[in-house]
Amino acid sequence: MNRAVDRARLASGLETSRVLTGLWQVADQERAGATLETERAARALEPVVDAGFTTFDVADHYGSAELIAGALRKRRPEVRVFTKWVPEPGVSSRGDVEAAVRLSLDRIGTDRLDVLQFHAWSYPDPGWLDCLFHLLEIRSEGRIGHLGVTNFDAVHLDLALRSGIPLVSNQVCYSLVDRRPAGAMTEVCRTHGVGLLAYGSLSGGLLSDRWLGAAEPPIDESLTWSQMKYRRFIDQAGGWDRFQAVLRAARRVADRCGVSIANVAVRYVLEQPAVAGVIVGARPGERSHLEDNLRLFDFTLDEQSRAELAGAQATLDPIPGDCGDEYRRPPYLTASGDLHHHVTHFPAPYAVRDTERGVELDPEAGFPEAVRTGNEIRISGVTPTHRGRLIGGNDVRAQTHFALDRVEGALQSLDAETTDVTKVTARSREEDWPVVKAVLLKRLASVGPDSRVLDHYPGGLRAVTRHRVEVDVEART
User: Can you give the pLDDT at residue 449?
Assistant: First the structure.
């Protein structure tokens, strides 16, 4: 007999079933333009709730998913709805944030969102921080229970937490094919007590018995959007033949455990450190894989099984970058292979103006100097501050990353990139310098080590200012 569905605590008063039901496929079902009938779709999901899967993951852009989840919650009050807000890149005013929250409240039919998860498109544009601070204010008013994020990388999850944003979760891709969260992300989550909510653990259904031994499918409209997306992940990991080796290893493990390949794939992720839950998609009115999902709590992976899976994974190439990078830089591992289905444009992070010296950032950007004269660029006095706030708390690594985010945003606004940087001068306390230097080397790889200068204030930088690092750069295009 199947035992009860496991649950995880994300925060005081907030639990999640360890398998969350994801409704992103509602958008795929509505791809042709026909909207699902809300009440009928909600009724179709009631057996999922009956089985103990009481947490549902939706978003503002998953078609009518918020409406369906709201109708289900009205019928079944034990249901918890985790939604998302994914704004267009650029500035979002407090009014814009208010409107987004109100829309989700109205769709779900509640006066308090259980969890609102925020997605940031571009870290060099500090607008993502403005959004989080606005959401924090709305949370303090009682309209949001808890804040989470989605597709944040380890650096910026840590940065947000150290800046005083109380995040309970980060939703990221995690699977037998994609192990990016296993490193720095897991360390950040364990340090701060954040739970990972994993999606893509079945690679759009490709990690299943159906695809064992199957011919490689083309990336076209014969696949679901999820399948098109994760076919690109498989290509990045080394291709279909190597993926088949992972399926074969999962099948051997599944045979010993008396379960499916999909069960093994999800159980693998559930057993990873910092993972609070795995999001498994459902198509209301079509299929929910309910019985198969219940088997996830009837077995665990033993040492032999973990070793067998690790051996197959070792043949794969790592997915490039950190969590969420598939939405921020090439290769864009999305259904379309680019971002045209997601965003319309990326505005410059900072406004510019023409002056006698050349093109300068608007003074409201808060840079002592950021000017382009011909093909030469000078940016000075960059600190880890934004709108009067110290970002990164008292952590020098987080502060340095945010200072370099500001540098990158200034360069983009002046039609340049970090690869154009020719010289960096960084000021810090001497005891902080190894950390500062390590971040500089990671973020500004185009600059040789000899161009970096340690220039600390007498008595240490903290003797005259709250921040622990200050950066100047020169660039040439």
Answer: 57
Residue 344 CA to chain centroid, in angstroms? 20
Average pLDDT of the chain, as a whole number: 93
Question: What's the rounded Cα separation, in Å, for the pair 117 and 319?
Answer: 24
- Residue 66 · residue 40 · CB < 8 Å: no
Q: Residue 78 has which token pair?
A: 């034990």
Residue 108 sits in a domain of what CATH number?
A: 3.20.20.100
Structure token pair of residue 370: 């950021």
SS3 426: strand
Angle (deg, nearest 10), helices 303-313 and 261-270: 100
Q: Is residue 419 part of a domain?
A: yes
Verdict on whether the full-model pTM lies above 0.90 = yes
Lookup: tokens for 25? 């496929």
Q: List the CATH number of the domain containing 380.
A: 3.30.1330.40
Within-domain flag for 300? no
Q: Give burial (CB, 10 Å; 0-12/13-18/19+) of 470.
A: buried
Q: Are 266 and 384 contained in the same domain?
A: no
Residue bearing tokens 């007999």: 1
Full domain range(s) for residue 195: 7-205+261-292
Residue 240: which of 219, 263, 260, 268 has the closest Cα?
Answer: 219
Position 96 in a domain: yes
Per-residue confidence (pLDDT) for residue 325, from 0 to 100: 97
Q: Does residue 23 sit within a domain?
A: yes
Number of domains observed in the structure of the chain: 2
pLDDT single digits (tens) 407-466: 999 999 999 999 999 988 888 888 888 899 889 989 987 776 555 555 554 444 444 467
| Residues forming beta bridges with residue 378, ordered by sequence position | 371, 474
